[in-house]
Amino acid sequence: MAEAIKFGTDGWRAVIADQFTFENVERVAYAIGLYLQQEVPELDRKPVLIGYDTRFMADRFALRAAQVLLAMGLKVKVSDRDIPTPCIAWAAQAEPTAGALQFTASHNPPEYCGVKYIPPYGGPATNDITEKIVANLKQVPPERRKEVVKLSRQEADRFSAHEPYLVALSKLIDLAAIKKAGLKVAYDALFSTSRGYLDVILERAGVDFTVLHGYRDPLFGGGMPEPTEKYLSELKAVMAQGDFDLGLATDGDADRFAVVGAGGKFFTPNQLLCLLTRHLHKRHGLQGAVVRNVATSHMLDHVAKLFALPLIETPVGFKYIGEKMRTDDVLIGGEESGGVSIKGHIPEKDGILANLLVLEMLALEGKSLEAIWQDLADEAGVTFFQRRGDLHLTDATQKLLLKGLEENPIKELGGKPLQRVSKLDGLKLYYDDDNWLLIRASGTEPVIRVSGEGTSEQLIDSLMLDFKAQIDEILEGAKAVGV
């Protein structure tokens, strides 16, 4: 079933017991092992780290992968507990390793699991690495794979990166300022790997905090381990009571973050990216490029311009941002879905660090998050409003829609004429006065993502409604021809 294994923007994810099976995990582990034997020098001296999140069977899948790699003659160390993706990524680059395998499906529904290879630089694997692994998948003879698994009777060594990682984070954050500020925090762990990490730092900083969902539940309370407003209703309700200054949350593997302000107001990742850029430049005195993907708010462009910082746009997928962080002088890299990393840290998104930076910002500013946002909006002289929707379509209909829009992009939306079209990732339609729409196939789920941004709520709503009406005609045409 090699054809069932498809690597997206952040590794391979699939439904457990459907495509994500022990057999396919063995295939992927063997393919990664072959890649390591082909590409990593002095492999006999460098262990492969293996971690997993809180999902159903994730630890068992991790141990099966360890078994395969051990039988191939590789050194392996398995995490002693579920581990945040940013923590294992940090560990992969902190000492000589052959990289890491992390078993996670991040924010996907509970029935999913996934695995991704993290190279020794501590960030997402780039396309050239993934392509070599996929090529190895096609070369794996099933009988050889089964022999390899039977040969392995070794127990993998265990490792913990918990304390070194927390120490590394503490060097990036002014914990003394946080302690002095006396802020009260509500932290929603969302049943994730961040429990035992973010709460430990808060405790060490002397923060008065309370924890929601700070335990393992593979069903994620019947919801999704996704730090979006929809799945943070309990945190918002707690914050609305007025007893806390800040609400913090992470996703399932703690690489993404979310923040709720006093009174229960949810702040979007786009807003937080802008605020953190200002904070790092203003309070930390840091310089460097601001890197965002094509789906992230152009408000960030205005903030970068405000502080005379270069702006770099990438395709969707933190691997592209991480690559820029390794090759360019980057201050901050981030995406609209809640992934952020900064100068001096790993080229991988880190929701734990991002939450701590927001807390530090409040401590140093001495203001509410709402007040700090208003300060920035006044300084930038502009604000933007975003909308997003998903189109659940068959593969054939997705292709027909994207092809139709590419060949004949919509010339006017919401009364705004089309200015230009970008094909950096999907189709990005730029309309007059800095309004835009992005239409692209998801790299992690079988949907078409539609993102948009306008300089007023009325305008972006008008753009999205006009777009829906026009694509409905395309989709009706698709039905007529049986697609």
From TrEMBL:
Coiled coil: none annotated. Residues 5-139, 164-260, 269-377 form the Alpha-D-phosphohexomutase alpha/beta/alpha domain. Keywords: Isomerase, Magnesium, Metal-binding, Phosphoprotein. Residues 429-467 form the Alpha-D-phosphohexomutase C-terminal domain. One of its GO terms (biological process) is purine ribonucleoside salvage. GO terms for molecular function: metal ion binding; phosphopentomutase activity. Gene3D superfamilies: Alpha-D-Glucose-1,6-Bisphosphate, subunit A, domain 3 (3.40.120.10), Alpha-D-phosphohexomutase, C-terminal domain (3.30.310.50). InterPro entries: A-D-PHexomutase_a/b/a-I (IPR005844), A-D-PHexomutase_a/b/a-I/II/III (IPR016055), A-D-PHexomutase_a/b/a-II (IPR005845), A-D-PHexomutase_a/b/a-III (IPR005846), A-D-PHexomutase_C (IPR005843), A-D-PHexomutase_C_sf (IPR036900), Alpha-D-phosphohexomutase_SF (IPR005841). It holds the Pfam family PGM_PMM_IV. Its cofactor is Mg(2+). PANTHER family: PHOSPHOGLUCOMUTASE 2B-RELATED, PHOSPHOMANNOMUTASE 45A. Belongs to the phosphohexose mutase family. This is Phosphoglucomutase/phosphomannomutase family protein. It comes from Candidatus Obscuribacter phosphatis. The lineage of its organism: Bacteria, Bacillati, Candidatus Melainabacteria, Candidatus Obscuribacterales, Candidatus Obscuribacteraceae.
